[in-house]
Amino acid sequence: MVKVALQGAEFFAYHGFYPQEQLLGTRFVVDIEVVFENAYDFNDDKIANTVNYEELYLIAKTEMQHTRKLIETVAQGIIDGITGKYDYVKIASVTIKKANPALGGPVQNSVVSISYNKDKAKNGL
User: Fold this and answer.
1) Are the C-beta atoms of 79 and 9 separated by less than 8 Å?
2) What's the CA gap between 125 and 44, in Å, rounded?
3) Which residue, 29, 32, 33, 34, is CA-closest to 8?
4) Which residues have C-beta within 8 Å of that of residue 115, sequence separation ≥ 6?
5) Which tens digit of pLDDT belongs to each residue from 41-83?
């Protein structure tokens, strides 16, 4: 098994349930991790034999540009983008941290994590 990950990808975006959040925006930090079986010999040194983490970043960037009410929707969009591009990914997880959520008091981050497991998805679990 091979794991490819991005940690701490930062974006300024306008996600939030309240109109004020969608107007002002805030900083988000995205972590992505994917796991797949190695079907190739990495000694041939070809990017096509792996999950390109630059593509992971671009998928996240695209989803972060679409304003959503729920961070969960954004995370699911990133998972869908990854599994749509890399059908051999067995496990994927996305964690999104929203800096300084408007909760009426000091909170460093709100955090949402969504995971995908291809074997469970096939079985309808």
Assistant:
1) no
2) 37
3) 29
4) 91, 92, 93, 94
5) 888 898 888 999 999 999 999 999 999 999 999 999 999 999 9
Q: Would you call 63 helix, strand, or coil by DSSP? A: helix
As a whole number of angstroms, the distance between CA 7 and CA 31 comes to 4
As given in the structure block, the two tokens for residue 33 are 């991790």
Coil/strand/helix, residue 120 = helix
Interior angle at CA 70, CA 67 and CA 16, nearest 5: 60
The string of pLDDT tens digits covering residues 26-46 is 999 999 999 999 877 888 898
Q: What 3-state class would DSSP assign to 52?
A: coil
This prediction's pTM: 0.92
> Maximum Cα–Cα distance for the chain, whole Å?
55
Facing residues of 27 across strands?
A: 12
Structural tokens at position 76: 């699911």
User: Do residues 28 and 10 touch, judged by C-beta distance below 8 A?
Assistant: yes
